[in-house]
Design a protein that fits this description.
alpha+beta; Translation, Eukaryotic Peptide Chain Release Factor Subunit 1, Chain A; Nucleotidyltransferase, domain 5; five-stranded mixed sheet; four-stranded antiparallel sheet
Length: 362
């Protein structure tokens, strides 16, 4: 699924969630990939007959008419599309007694396997939401002798699960302590802290390990190596380690530093891919390279000069669709960027949500 398909589905989910029926009169239909569409049409026709028994005249009319509109949409297809079909229909009028039926029909970008018919006060969107929920997560662990932060990275978001501090004694020892005894105390504190980190890592990641595509660990000097080599983490978690990076910080800023340091290892993650494109744009901006923004953007589109178009998710929908269509027609790539990370926010705030990397300078 590309960023434009994801954007459209997220907008649809948001739109559907805004609709609220006064009674159980909103229709949701999910037809899985490979399922016989005639069976679904038969079921909806049968439900239409049952709906004629609804006591409330207004509710009966809304349900029967919504089912009829759903049937009309389903009959546009001779067979179920390859990835399945989703149909939502209902009265979206906010005025009591006034009917404004609307139908949404979606051929999903990925196969769906859920068969569902529901008539309710709200549309059933959870299977649709699953399509735009990132499937793969990456574990992130930033660790040194004083602090540790454990997080996951999914799509355009990272989530901090746990922050730990050691109460590490540092380099100063109490009077009367021998150097060797002090060294043993420090080693014991370090070991106990790493054990606490390992216990937290096991608790957070073991229960979702099947969804963890890889784990990246970062920290200064040899501390992170000691943590990895010691018996602190479950062996199944260790198998998921894909990169070990030198980083300076181990708080939340260390997690951001770790994402940047591991961008080659995390290049399939949406945030990392989009960060890299915006960073490339910023590099070209400093070097007076092949980029366009502001009034020059339309000029670049008109000259078929765009290689990658960067659009903020928060632009008006009509602007996104218009610019997307123009860019795709000339063979450009398009990234619709969230503002939930620093570079995405910068695109929206500094460049008004529109910028491009060009094939050549204009």
């Amino acid at each position: 699924m590309d960023s434009h398909q994801e954007y459209q589905l997220k907008k649809l989910v948001k739109e559907l969630k805004k609709v609220s029926g006064r009674h159980t009169e909103l229709i949701s239909v999910y037809v899985p990939s490979g399922y016989d569409l005639n069976n679904v049409i038969g079921q909806i026709a049968s439900e239409q007959g049952t709906a004629t028994n609804i006591k409330s005249k207004t509710t009966r009319k809304n349900v029967v008419d919504a089912l009829e509109k759903t049937l009309q949409h389903l009959r546009l297809y001779t067979r179920t599309p390859p990835n399945g079909l989703m149909v939502f229909c209902g009265n979206i009028s906010e005025r009591e007694g006034v009917q404004n039926l609307k139908v949404w029909g979606i051929e999903p970008p990925e196969p769906i396997n859920q068969r569902l018919y529901r008539c309710d006060k709200e549309f059933i969107t959870s299977p649709l939401e699953e399509l735009v929920t990132p499937k793969d997560a990456y574990g992130l662990i930033a660790v040194d002798n004083k602090t540790a932060t454990i997080a996951t990275l999914k799509g355009t978001n990272y989530t901090i699960h746990k922050k730990l501090t050691s109460g590490y004694s540092g380099k100063h020892r109490a009077g009367g302590q021998s150097a060797r005894r002090f060294e043993r105390l420090i080693e014991e504190e370090s070991h106990n802290f790493k054990k606490r980190i390992g216990d937290a890592v096991n608790e957070i990641f073991l229960q979702v390990l099947k969804d963890i595509r890889g784990i990246v660990i970062g920290g200064p000097a040899a501390t992170k190596e000691d943590f990895i080599d010691g018996a602190y983490m479950n062996h199944e978690i260790k198998k998921k380690i894909i990169a070990v990076k030198d980083i300076t910080y181990t708080d939340e800023s260390g997690i951001r530093e770790l994402i940047n340091a591991a961008e080659n290892d995390l290049k399939e993650v949406e945030m990392v891919r989009q960060k890299a494109q915006i960073q490339k744009f910023m590099k070209y901006l400093i070097e007076d390279g092949p980029i366009a923004y502001g009034p020059d953007l339309q000029k670049a589109l008109d000259q078929n000069a765009i290689d990658t178009l960067l659009l903020s998710y928060n632009l008006p929908e009509e602007d996104i669709e218009s610019l997307y269509e123009q860019a795709i027609r000339q063979g450009a790539k398009v990234e619709i960027v969230s503002d939930e990370f620093e570079e995405g926010y910068q695109l929206g705030n500094t460049f008004k949500g529109k910028a491009a990397i060009l094939r050549y300078k204009i």
